[in-house]
Amino acid sequence: MRPLTSAPTAGVGLLLTVLGHSVGWPFVEGGSAQLTDALVAALEVGRGQLQTGWWIRSLAELPPSKAVLLDVTPRQLLALAGDRLSGGYRRAMERFRYGAGICKVDFALSGPVPWTNPGCRQAGTVHLGGTFEEVARAEAEVAAGRHPEFPYVLVAQAGTADPSRAPLGGQTLWAYCHVPSGSDVDMTPRIEAQIERFAPGFRDLVLAKVHRTARDQEAYDPNCVGGDIASGAQDLWQTFCRPAPRWDPYRTPLPGVYLCSASTTPGPGVHGRCGELAALSALRHSFGISEVPDLRRLAPNQGPAPAAC
Ligand SMILES: Cc1cc2nc3c(=O)[nH]c(=O)nc-3n(C[C@H](O)[C@H](O)[C@H](O)COP(=O)(O)OP(=O)(O)OC[C@H]3O[C@@H](n4cnc5c(N)ncnc54)[C@H](O)[C@@H]3O)c2cc1C
After folding, report:
1. 16-48 pLDDT, tens per residue?
2. What's the predicted TM-score (pTM) here?
3. Which residue has the least CA distance to atom 8 on ligand 1?
């Protein structure tokens, strides 16, 4: 999500490469909703209740409680808290920076992508861009506020690991490329051209497709400000001081109110660590519990967890 000349990008690349080679990049069998369902089941075992479809516009709407954990970015925290936040913390939240957006396309295909490179036919995730110089140029263009003609494209083909994702013989595929923040440009033709470049015949397999511009992405999930799926620019400063330089980045100055989103350290990704660390902070400061039980023991005892492919 950053120009390749900026400081932490090599570190992030190295980390993801090591993870890819040591444990792989998992897909959840049956689709990512299975993971949500497993989390909800664990919540219910702990006698928790989940309520969805309720858009929160102010902290005042929330029922009284010892702790509130907000899965939002600093911009929404400011809106939710209104004038209850002031001083240095408010200014720090206002200074929080967001990064580039994405344009994403979902495809239904009549068969597997005919990648020229046989290795790509087995990979769950394929990063397309040509040479290093081409990828660097594309990312530099996005950082300069332009839409690259030959974008770097991230392609996920879960069907290579999980055949249940599509009817027999078919394939599902999604791909995105980076675009300037707030873009409403549909990059589908450029994304398709990049895939076709490395997999001639790809276009003939497309049964259906639907795209989401960066602006659509924010409308779908307001945590993606300007289409930024990282919930905030991950430059060197915001990698370590996220969302602001604080000993406990999850606590806000409002009593019992915590931030638990990817706008906190250790940042974006589906690792769940931001939520875990925020929960530990809430247990410590709002409930006086510092000895935390092994949360995994609370997991529902109803058969195996959804398999990661
Ligand atoms: C297309 C795509 C591909 C990605 N690929 C990867 C990947 O391969 N690997 C990886 O590790 N990460 C990936 N990510 C990033 C990862 O999904 C995010 O970093 C992660 O989901 C952030 O988690 P979060 O809980 O902070 O926020 P979110 O997952 O965005 O959840 C926040 C939730 O809060 C809701 N919400 C916000 N405000 C309110 C409100 N006022 N009232 C009620 N509800 C509200 C939102 O609707 C949303 O459901 C990807 C993201 C996208 C979009």
Report:
1. 889 888 988 888 999 989 999 999 998 999 899
2. 0.92
3. 269
Going by CA atoms, what residue is nearest to atom 33 of ligand 1? Answer: 71
Give 306's DSSP letter: P
- As a whole number of angstroms, the distance between CA 287 and CA 178 comes to 42
Domains present along the chain, CATH in parentheses: 42-96+239-298 (no CATH), 100-220 (3.30.519)
- Tokens representing 34 are 């299975």
Residue nearest to atom 49 of ligand 1 (CA): 221
CB of 176 closer than 8 Å to CB of 194: no
Ligand 1 binding site (Cβ under 6 Å of any ligand atom): 55-56, 71-72, 76, 104, 176, 221-223, 229, 231, 261-262, 268-270
Q: Please write the tens of the pLDDT for every residue from 207-245.
A: 999 999 999 999 999 999 999 999 999 999 999 999 999
The single-letter code of the amino acid at 229 is I
